[in-house]
Design brief:
Length: 289
């Protein structure tokens, strides 16, 4: 009797559960959905469909990789962010749903600039896959984005993602350590910088510690090194009425706000993530000083 999708789903789920993988059933559905290019619901509704030996082998190899604690979307090679499929690579951070909070909150600011000026110049510092910049460009057609990173691999991936989504003409990659190679001023600065304290990086889940690039995780001794770099030069690169939107760690609101306050910026807006944790801070120039 030919092997069916349902029997392979059950086998894969049981293997992951036995290996101590949380959410084993959901991981299996996502893996099979991605590998076979079918919807999550179809993985369930088409359970009686026969599976070819080639597809069964691909799925079993993917399950073995997941058992070794490789994340589902690393195995698949891409992840959706803000409704957009983004390719991943070795030196890119896997974009998370919580970061969509930053995109959501920044869209009105970009649109306000467009209404005022007819266009909007955006820079995404430490772009990785290009997720934040690309998502914003997809929502605000009059915006143009510069995306920086210290990794050539990350910039190549981000550039390919922008091209695949038809945004190449409004997306400019720039190899730069924060503002090092940045010229001019921007209406909007955004970043999801590394913000984990060096001393606790080794305590992260293996899916993160072993597969996300260390440079995108390690924020220095107190987790604030990147914020210092961004704050210290922001005044030279932000337009007069511009804003800075940042993702932060759940316990960093006060510390990051103090850093920017010291550079003559004031907190304009803050937002929590899907889990109710502090996640986004938006700053503007403090004109009262």
């Amino acid at each position: 009797m030919a092997e069916t999708l349902a029997s392979l789903v059950a086998e894969s789920r049981d293997r992951l559960q036995a290996g101590g993988i949380e959410n084993a059933a959901l991981d299996v559905r996502h893996l099979i959905s991605g590998l076979l290019d079918m919807s999550l619901s179809a993985v369930v509704s088409r359970g009686r469909d026969p599976i070819s030996d080639e597809d069964a082998t691909r799925i079993r190899v993917a399950v073995a990789r997941r058992l070794a604690r490789e994340p589902v979307y690393r195995i698949l090679g891409e992840r959706e962010f803000f409704g957009l499929p983004l390719k991943l690579s070795k030196e890119t951070l896997e974009p998370r749903p919580d970061t969509e909070t930053l995109v959501d909150r920044m869209i009105p600011y970009l649109r306000a600039v467009v209404a005022r000026k007819g266009g909007c110049a955006l820079i995404d510092l430490g772009t990785g896959t290009g997720a934040i910049c690309i998502a914003l460009l997809s929502q605000v057609l009059e915006a143009r984005g510069t995306a920086t990173d210290i990794s050539k691999d990350a910039l190549a991936t981000a550039t390919a993602n922008a091209a695949a989504l038809g945004l190449a003409d409004r997306f400019r990659p720039l190899l730069s350590n924060w503002y090092e190679k940045v010229d001019g001023r921007y209406d909007v600065i955004v970043s999801n910088p590394p913000y984990i304290r060096s001393s606790v990086v080794h305590e992260l889940e293996p899916e993160v510690r072993l597969h996300d690039p260390a440079a995108a995780l390690d924020g220095g001794e107190d987790g604030l090194d990147a914020y210092r770099a961004i704050a210290s030069q922001a005044g030279h690169h932000l337009e007069t009425n511009g804003v800075i939107g940042l993702e932060i760690g759940f316990d960093q609101k006060e510390a990051v706000t103090a850093l920017f306050s010291a550079e003559n910026f004031r907190l304009r807006e803050e937002a929590k993530d899907l889990g109710g944790n502090d996640r986004v801070l938006i700053f503007e120039r403090d004109t009262n000083r």
